[in-house]
Task: inverse folding
């Protein structure tokens, strides 16, 4: 692979661009960025991309196209995930993007998404023990149980943070009754996961990118640790998570934005995302450690290209 290659992840909340070039058989990252496009906003639970969401999507892809042209990128792999695969107008949106930018987007299944996430996390984190990988997107959440050698179980659930936010968080700060209702929903929805955890007994929870990146940055700032957003793995502890979570559920949006390490693209969904993490920790007595992988789907795609 001598040419430059771009990988684009068209997520429900965020569009990611990863621009790489091969150097002695290994990928070198030339440029990466993320844009809070929020194509799921207002339509995610109705399985539609709104007109406003389409406008934001095309604008973001046009901006990516400028970067690709400037860098003379010849190969582009673009992937659509939960919002696009479930939207009744998902194929139409993808066709509009291609007509406008020339970029062809492939909508992938939840299983394919989980496969790429596993490859990405495995490239970042050495999983000696059986681990549960959790990738909380805006539309779906992927759970993978495995180790560094093999994947033992995987499933994608359409219970992403934008869906949970619009369905359960009607007040800000979130009400205790809303958290209770959310937990009841998770208990029912995640029964296959509970059974898999009981069977494989993962000892490590590995959070993949997104919410976990922000939690890790807050943790590092508060504990005086160096935080490197480009590092494959970043620190987070159970103690820190619980402290941050207990703070998040008592604050409104403006107050959450004042937390050092919080970013605006994460401030709305982080409460329900952390409710999901808290639920997982409460329901599992096997976890001995918590780790954060900065790598996710796009790095997984890259890993498969350089096998």
Result:
């Amino acid at each position: 692979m001598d040419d430059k290659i771009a990988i684009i992840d068209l997520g429900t909340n965020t569009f990611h661009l990863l621009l790489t070039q091969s150097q002695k058989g290994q990928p070198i990252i030339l440029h990466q960025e993320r844009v809070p496009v929020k194509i799921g906003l207002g339509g995610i639970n109705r399985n539609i991309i709104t007109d406003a969401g389409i406008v934001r999507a095309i604008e973001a892809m046009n901006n990516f196209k400028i970067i690709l042209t400037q860098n003379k990128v010849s190969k582009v792999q673009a992937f659509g995930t939960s919002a696009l695969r479930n939207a009744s107008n998902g194929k139409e949106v993808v066709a509009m993007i291609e007509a406008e930018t020339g970029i062809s987007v492939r909508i992938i299944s939840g299983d394919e998404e989980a496969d790429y996430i596993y490859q990405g996390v495995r490239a970042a984190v050495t999983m000696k023990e059986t681990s549960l990988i959790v990738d909380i997107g805006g539309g779906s959440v992927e759970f993978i149980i495995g180790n560094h050698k093999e994947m033992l179980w995987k499933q994608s659930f359409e219970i992403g943070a934008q869906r949970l936010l619009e369905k359960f968080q009607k007040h800000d700060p979130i009400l205790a009754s809303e958290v209770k209702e959310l937990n009841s929903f998770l208990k029912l929805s995640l029964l296959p996961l509970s059974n898999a955890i009981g069977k494989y007994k993962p000892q490590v929870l590995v959070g993949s990118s997104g919410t976990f990146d922000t939690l890790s940055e807050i943790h590092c700032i508060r504990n005086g640790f160096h935080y490197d957003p480009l590092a494959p793995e970043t620190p987070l502890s159970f103690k820190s998570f619980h402290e941050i979570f207990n703070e998040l559920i008592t604050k409104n949006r403006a107050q959450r934005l004042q937390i050092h390490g919080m970013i605006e693209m994460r401030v709305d969904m982080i409460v329900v995302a952390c409710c999901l993490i808290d639920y997982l920790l409460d329901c599992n007595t096997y976890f001995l450690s918590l780790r954060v992988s900065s790598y996710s789907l796009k790095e997984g795609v890259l890993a498969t290209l350089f096998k």
About this structure: The mean pLDDT is 96. Residues 238 and 269 are 20 Å apart (CA to CA).
